[in-house]
Amino acid sequence: MKDVLTIILGGGKGTRLYPLTADRAKPACPFGGKYRLVDIPISNSINSGFRRIYVLTQFNSASLHLHIGRTYNFDAFSRDFCEILAAEQTFDHEGWYGGTADAVRKNLDHFRVQKPSHYIILSGDQLYRMDLEEYMQQHMDSGADVTIAATPVSRSAADDLGILQINKKMEVESFLEKPGPDVTIDEFRIPADNLTNEDIRDGKEYLASMGIYIFNADAMEKALDSDKKDFGKEVLPDAIGNVDVRAYTYRGYWEDIGTIRSFYEANLNLGSPYPRFNLYDQSNPLFTHRRDLPPTKINSSTLKNSIASEGSILTDAFISNSLIGIRTIIDSGATLESVYAMGADVYETEEQKKNNQKNGIPNYGIGQGTMISNAIIDKNARIGKGCRIGVDPKDRPEGDYDGYAIREGIIIILKGAIIPDGTSI
């Protein structure tokens, strides 16, 4: 399996995660207090033994490039690497990536240099842990040209996903993209022999594509010898019936971080007693940039079902069901309920704090006596004293405001925003 290339797709605009994606690529969004979303597929690939990795980027990619360049530096005496391939103009193509398949097609010349036997295609914005080596082994044992990773879902969940029709041999016979609630898809039910008791108990009788694929190298060349732009909508449906396409069933936790609500809930769930995505898995660590920060200091505070990342200072605070990111400073008397505070990129010096005070600007972090609920606080935000954010009933429509936005009922304090003392949102 040494000739496997991992391709991570990270070039989309991430419009549904706006304003978190206002100046960063979706895979670069902070996750879990200290990670980035892109760390998840990269870590899955490394932990599975596939250590030749390309990340394809296009939109707002500067912070993603910086993170990957700082983090994933392999042994110079091995053939391992994790490299960025940004959208570029050449004599053969001048436009941006037109879709997932188009992104791979436009980089085939770079991939061919590595002489891969297989490609694993991963998304840069999904939450899961998968043994990709087992996935690859099934692909090779089956003799398939293409294998699609899929997970059992209920009929209601199938509305917004790509649904596979398979036979008992796990051969994919057809593919239906986002059928919606009004389409009858009984013929797409998983064959009885392929269902588990757990699938039946949970009502998960349909198989949804996870957007994770394995291609033999020659199958990839043939599949992309066209003008088709997207794997899920065009390339794979066309391949079914022309080449051997199989399904690989994954029954672990999988979340497509597609909306502000799913991003918010996935992060807060990390602090629950039994999180759906376990950060504390010693055999499958989640890698990220090493910062060498001091441990978090907790001065007479109460934390319930929460995580506080390194380098933070919490003073006489009450924090419940929340996620505290790196270098978060929370002053005395603050209350956080269901909040993801992403933290800060740097510490402020005492001189800078004095200048802040002279100019009436809050320091980085959360000020004294401030109460916050049901919110995401992006990096480097300054929230003053005595603010009330999300704790008072307000009939304010979703939209963009001065220093904050509201999406799906969640208040988002923008990156670098200044929220003055006494503000009520």
How would you describe this protein?
By secondary structure, this protein is an alpha/beta fold. The chain folds into two domains: 266 residues, Spore Coat Polysaccharide Biosynthesis Protein SpsA, Chain A; 123 residues, UDP N-Acetylglucosamine Acyltransferase, domain 1. Helix content is 19%, strand content 28%. It is built from ten helices and 29 strands. The strands form six sheets. Strands 15, 16, 18, 19, 21, 23, 25, 26, 27 and 28 form a ten-stranded mixed β-sheet that branches. Strands 1, 4, 5, 6, 8, 9, 10, 11 and 12 form a nine-stranded mixed β-sheet that branches. Strands 14-17-20 form a three-stranded parallel β-sheet, with no helix packed on it. 45% of the residues are buried.
CATH architectural name of the largest domain: Alpha-Beta Complex
CATH-wise, what's the superfamily of the largest domain? Answer: Spore Coat Polysaccharide Biosynthesis Protein SpsA, Chain A
Class from helix and strand fractions: alpha/beta
The mean pLDDT is: 92
Number of strands: 29
Provide the domain count: 2
Poorly predicted spans: none
State the helicity in percent bands. 10-25%
Shape: globular
Helix tally equals 10
Beta content? 25-35%
Biggest beta sheet attributes: 10 strands, mixed
Measure the end-to-end span. 54 Å
How much is the radius of gyration in Å?
23 Å
CATH topology of the largest domain: Spore Coat Polysaccharide Biosynthesis Protein SpsA, Chain A
User: What's the CATH class of the largest domain, please?
Assistant: Alpha Beta
